[in-house]
Design brief:
By secondary structure, the protein is α/β, with parallel strands linked by helices. It has a domain at 6-101 and 170-249: Rossmann fold. Helix content is 35%, strand content 26%. It contains ten helices and ten strands. The protein has helices at residues 46-52, 83-89, 104-114, 121-133, 137-140, 153-165, 183-196, 209-215, 233-238, 243-249, and strands spanning 6-17, 20-31, 35-39, 63-71, 74-75, 90-93, 171-175, 201-205, 218-223, 226-232. Strands 6-7-8-3-9-10 form a six-stranded mixed sheet, sandwiched between helices. A four-stranded antiparallel sheet has the order 2-1-4-5, covered by helices on one side. A hairpin with a 2-residue loop joins strand 1 and strand 2. Helix 3 runs parallel beside helix 6. The structure holds adenosine-5'-triphosphate. InterPro entries: AAA+_ATPase, ABC_transporter-like_ATP-bd, ABC_transporter-like_CS, P-loop_NTPase, PstB-like.
Length: 254
C-alpha cells in the first residue's frame, strides 16, 4: 500500500472455526486515517477477518488462528495483551443497529460509565460531542432522556456509531453498517464515514460495491478465504489485476 502510516498489519494469517479453515495466509496492511473496504462474495471471510482485528472471534468457542495481527506494530494476540483495552481502542458497529433499552443519553454514556466516568458536566459534554460527531445531535438534543428504541433505523445506527465513539477509539470496524438502512439513512451514514476518517481508521465490510467506491480509499477483495487483490479503490475498480476481481466487480458472480 502507499506511504500512509500503517495502523494494522496482518502477517500470514490463517483462521479456523473448529476444523473449518475460513482464512488462508492473509497478509495485508490497513492504513491509518483512511477507509478500507473488505469486499467479496458471501462466506469469503470478510466478517471473520474484521472480527480478528478486535479479538471478537475469541468469544466463539473452538476458533484459532496462526500468523500475526499487529496494531501499531504490536501483536494484539501476544500473551498479556489487555483485550478490554484493545476493544476500547478498536470499536465496532454491527450490521443491525443494537441500541440498549435505555435512553439516548445512556446509550452513549454507557462505555464511559463502565470506564469510571461519573455523571456531570464532563460526561454531558462527551455525550454531546459524540452525538455531534455521529451527525445526530440536532435530531435528538431535545429528547436525550427518551428511549433509544423510539429512533428510526438510520438514527439508531448513528446512535450506535456515537456509542462506539464514546470510548474514544482509534479504529472503527463496521460490519455492513448500512445493509438494514434505507437510501437516505445510508447516505447519512456514508457522509459520516467520510467525516470520521479524518480522525479515525475505518474498516468497513460491505456487499455494496457502489458504497465501496463512494467511501473507501482502499479496497481488499476476498474469495474463499483468500485475499485476491487489494489497493487504492479507484485503481482497483478501474484496472483490476486479477480475473476473479474483474469478474466480481462486473457482477459476474457473488
Ligand atoms: N461462528 C461460526 N462458526 C463456524 N463457522 C463460521 C462461523 N462464522 C462464520 N463461519 C464460516 O466461515 C466462513 C467465512 O464466514 P464470514 O461470515 O467471515 O464470511 P463473510 O464474507 O463475512 O460472509 P457474508 O458476506 O455472508 O457476511 C464461512 O464459510 C462461514 O460459514
Amino acid at each position: 500500500m502507499p506511504s500512509a502510516a500503517v495502523r494494522f498489519r496482518l502477517e500470514r494469517v490463517n483462521f479456523w472455526y473448529g476444523s473449518h479453515q475460513a482464512l488462508y495466509d492473509i497478509t495485508l496492511s490497513i492504513p491509518a486515517r483512511a477507509v478500507t473496504a473488505f469486499i467479496g462474495p458471501s462466506g469469503c471471510g470478510k466478517s471473520t477477518l474484521l472480527r480478528l482485528l478486535n479479538r471478537m472471534n475469541d468469544l466463539i468457542e473452538g476458533t484459532r488462528h496462526t500468523g500475526q495481527v499487529l496494531l501499531d506494530g504490536e501483536d494484539i494476540y501476544a500473551p498479556g495483551q489487555d483485550v478490554v483495552e484493545l476493544r476500547r481502542r478498536v470499536g465496532m458497529v454491527f450490521q443491525k443497529s443494537n441500541p440498549f433499552p435505555k435512553s439516548i443519553y445512556e446509550n452513549v454514556a454507557f462505555g464511559p460509565r463502565m470506564a469510571g466516568w461519573r455523571s456531570g458536566r464532563a460526561l454531558d459534554e462527551l455525550v454531546e460531542r459524540c452525538l455531534r460527531q455521529a451527525a445526530l445531535w440536532e435530531e435528538v438534543k431535545d429528547r436525550l432522556h427518551t428511549s433509544a428504541w423510539a429512533l428510526s433505523g438510520g438514527q439508531q445506527q448513528r446512535l450506535c456509531i456515537a456509542r462506539a465513539l464514546a470510548t474514544q477509539p482509534e479504529v472503527l470496524l463496521m460490519d455492513e453498517p448500512c445493509s438494514a438502512l434505507d437510501p437516505k439513512s445510508t447516505q447519512a451514514v456514508e457522509e459520516l464515514i467520510l467525516q470520521l476518517k479524518q480522525h479515525y481508521t475505518i474498516v468497513i465490510v460491505t456487499h455494496n460495491m457502489q458504497q465501496a467506491m463512494r467511501v473507501a480509499d482502499f479496497t481488499a477483495f476476498f474469495y474463499e478465504g483468500r485475499l485476491i487483490e487489494n489497493g487504492p479503490t479507484a485503481e482497483m475498480f478501474a484496472h483490476p489485476k486479477e480475473k476473479r476481481t474483474a469478474d466480481y466487480l462486473s457482477g459476474r458472480f457473488g
